[in-house]
Amino acid sequence: MEHFALWLSAFLTLGILSFLYKDNPWYKLSEAVFVGISAGFWFVTLFWDNLVGKFWDGWQDEPMLWVGAALGFLMLLRLVPRIGWISRWPLAFIVGATSGLWLMNYLASNIMVQVQATIQPLFSTSYASGPDAGWGAIVGSLVIVVGTFTGLVYFYFSKEHKGAFGATARVGIFFIMITFGASFGYTVMSRMSLLIGRIDFLLGDWLGLIN
Amino acid sequence: MTFHRGRTSSLASGFSARLIIVIVVIAFLAAPAMWSRADGPDIVLAGSDSALVSLAPVTSLVAADNTYDNGDALRLTWVPSIDDRLIDSKIIGYRVYRLAGTGEPEAIADLPPGSNQYLDETVLRDSVYSYYVSTLSERAEFPSNRTAVISPQREWINLDRGYLFLIALAIAGAVIYYVTVAKRGKKLFVRKIAGLEAIDDAVGRATEMGRPVLFIPGIHDMDDVQTLAALTILGRVSRTIADYESKIFMPVARSLVMTAGREVIKSSYQAAGRPDAYSDDMVNYITDEQFGYVAAVDGIMVREKPATVFLLGAFFAESLILAETGNSVGAIQIAGTARPAQLPFFIAACDFTLIGEELFAASAYLSGEPRQLGSLKGQDVGKVIAMVVIMIGVISLTFAEAWKIEFMQDILDRLSVVFSTN
Amino acid sequence: MSTRAKELIALGAITLFALSFYLNKVWGRGTFEFPTWLSAVVIALIGLSLLWILVLTLKGRLIERRVVFVYVGFAVALPLFMSFSQKITISPEVYQLHDALMELPAGSKVLISFDYDPPSAPELQPMAESIIRVCFEKDLKVIVMGLWPQGPQQANLALEKVFQDSAIVAKNLQYGKDYVNLGFQAGNEFVIQRMGSSFESMFPSDYEGTPYKEIPLVRNVRNFSNVDFSVNLSAGFPGTVEWVQIAVDRYGLPMGAGNTAVQAPVMYAYLNAGQLEGLLGGMSGAAEFEAVAEYQAKGTKFMLSQSFAHVVVIAFVIIGNVAFFRSGRKSKLRGN
User: What is the pTM of this model?
Assistant: First the structure.
């Protein structure tokens, strides 16, 4: 069975990789298997973890779960065209609850704390001596402050980007693009890591060529 | 002999008096051990006579729940020892002890002389505690009476987050104001967004080439505002497609998005006067699994060869795969997402990219809906607040650090209090 | 010969090679490793060929995209056969996470949230194994959970791998007393929110069905205030962002994070603001953590392939830009 599993994994891996050559029946088969199994996996996971694991096993301790179950059922009414409008209510509940939670979380963690962290001294006596000494610290502070400020100016939509305001926004987009370049580089590393993992499987676990 | 009896009596009474005195002294010395001091430990006495300085304990020790918090703090107040007022006071500080339930006393804080309060923030809600405070000399401790047992309570309002609330109110208030203004018909200015003008040209290109338009609304569900923005733009795009009599395909990864997408496209075709041209097959659910969805969409791109691909919404690791495949089939691609990690790939592989909030601005711009426009303007108010605070903070901190100007330090301290989230 | 025939012959050849290597493996043949001179020859050949491609590009002869795929494939695969390893420079944020774990006294409870699935395992699984190993070496108690369905399964795989080490086996760690897997819970950020009040409400039983109150390690763990440190291993949503917003900022839980390299740049904002106590980014983060923990595993092993792949990508970025500037700026609305 282990041999079959190894060969099946290798077959599907190489099938997906064959797309790099061109679209072919091998890729189509692997794609269809992946899509089908993933849909089935998610259905089983959601059924056993949510419906059974959370609701059916838990409603006696938490009767409020029936409210959630009822809202979930109302969502399914979307399939009945005449009363499909009812499904908007549970949807509104989900959107509202999520928005309420996210509003304060993002405001606190992503705005207030970050604004506080952006406030750096452009010059400090600690830049002359101590652990933060050196031009690097000054440049670092400048980059953070100027980059954040000009980035905010770029995303200000109530004023046309003209004159001094436009020039500031242009500086902002430079910072943004440099950030994206760094992020792109990091992501190339991520993609290569995934490829390395697969190649390690093919050469190591499957063919036994490497340790 | 009466005189002998008298002398014997006086001797006896003298002895009794001395005995009584000795007993009283012993009793006085032994009293602390004999009294039922269930309220505190025995006094620790120093080893040498010179260190036996007796200090008065603190008085009026009260433990109370810290009001308007999350039920995670208890506040102690007391009147400091009277010996603390002396010029040559022997007090070196105070030590706070806590007893959790029936447990042993645990020292939780050492405070300097003169202290008269302490906030214990390491308590657990629904647990019970009592406290006592010891006055410290160099060699000994003089504990107070123990407080009554208390349990921290959670209040409905947490004033620790008061400033957060005020800032949220300011931004939300701005949003509500501008929404109201927009609903009254006042035109709200939104700057031009690059890429929006290309939508009509892109759809026109698809019509000329006789190839479909592929619209991918991200892989998140309807609870993500990016998906909602994408569906708003879909309304405009599908209306243009209906007008141009072109074709649209919309594979989705969430069932709710499928039904919402069908409604939007159907409405657009009806508004264009072509309800018969609409078909439910234009929008298809693939799978919830991220890379399963990607594999299927890649297959659709390669087989159907769309002339235009819209990648708008919440994307994750699949963004580059989709953009690359679209690029390889020669499609013109217009992308937009608010996820910063995915923007580099869209910028590299797509023709036009809506960066971050530009997606929402585009949605507001195209729909012209008062709520969306008002929200955008309200968010701009938030950005102005952030920019002003950063400027003030940087200037204050620079002057405070470099030239030690106290006034600037005060401004900075105030800002720190306002922007603290705990 | 038609293209289809060539493709079929190539497919047949690949299958035959694969079968022969596989049979050799089954029959107990050892692994293959390049001697140093061969590694040097391979590196030189790749370098020279890249230079040749650059020359061709300057002459206006553009290469096909599939050539790029082949080069990347070689850059990833060939270093796996090479015998030399790469020097790992450790970043301050990796030291920060390691030091945070080292400063915990023995017996401290560490909550590790596995918020990823098998596609992200090449980056995050080495991190998970190293972190769990460090926790066990320091006699820290490990509580595992997941906000992604496959997270707890990945955790079990990591635990299995760690328990192959004889030094860890010698500690005689017991499930339920020294470590526990609470399993997966649906609900995304709402789970973290509820855990702030009560772990048991979200995990009434562990991964194996044992009721929460019967597990010695967690029966007295009511909420985040009973946990001494937390590490979040995340590949997306829900993940580190949600943990920082709720568990760190609202409940004050000290937390470090390990993220895929895609997400890591976003997390630096949280690291700089002091919301995270350490950050491991991608496979290089995993390799650095292995280096600081003095333990060599897959993260370290794969770094050579990573570096080679990066060099090849940089070379093709240069070549691509040369081609781009040679051909002039393409128009915005392209034809076929």
Answer: 0.79
